[in-house]
Amino acid sequence: MLQVGDRVVYPMHGAGIVAGIEECEVLGEDKSYYVIQMPIGNMKMMVPTDNVETVGLRDIVGEDKVAEVRDVLAAKPERVTGSWNKRFHANLARMKSGDICDVAAVARDLILQDRKRRVSSGEKRLLDLAKQILVSELVYACDKTPEEVESWLVGTIEENRHAQH
Question: What is the domain partition of the chain in residue ranges?
Fold first, then answer.
């Protein structure tokens, strides 16, 4: 059972704080919802309390996982062959997993791909979403500002690029 003040991650949306628990009537049935305040975009999400596992709501990662994310960002990019459409769907599937390392790999690969040859507009939106999800969780995991996290993220990928040349 989540409590008000808990920090959680909602896959494909990012991290937020449980701001409250509300009762709402939906289709004539009373249901209990977690109200999750998302700091980026100042958005509120409502997740049925009995649906937490189904939507993949999870706790913010710890320091050990942050180190793993750094390793993923510093690793060689994965080359997905095929059309941009095939790459897009493969990346989207990885992001839907809710695993921060998968999201980091998608962000890394798309950032590096975009620097070589501009990615499609669909992939650009996916890159922006991957960065938003990653930054929102790492803000809580590392107790840093979004700007500090974004700078660290790009810096880690830059170091990786120069080390491999």
Answer: 7-59, 63-163
Amino acid (1-letter code) at residue 52:
V
- Cβ contacts of residue 56 below 8 Å, gap of 6+? 10, 11, 98
- ∠ Cα 39 43 47 (to 5°): 105
Rounded to two decimals, the pTM is: 0.87
Measure the N-to-C terminal CA separation of the chain; round to a whole number of Å.
49
Quickly count: other Cβ atoms within 10 Å of residue 152's Cβ. 16
- For 63-163, which CATH class? mainly alpha
Distance from the Cα of residue 138 to its chain's centroid: 9
Domain at 7-59: CATH architecture:
Beta Barrel (2.40)
User: What does the pLDDT look like over 4-39, one tens digit per residue?
Assistant: 999 999 988 899 999 999 999 888 989 999 999 987
Percentage of the chain exceeding pLDDT 90: 62
- SS3 label, residue 56: coil
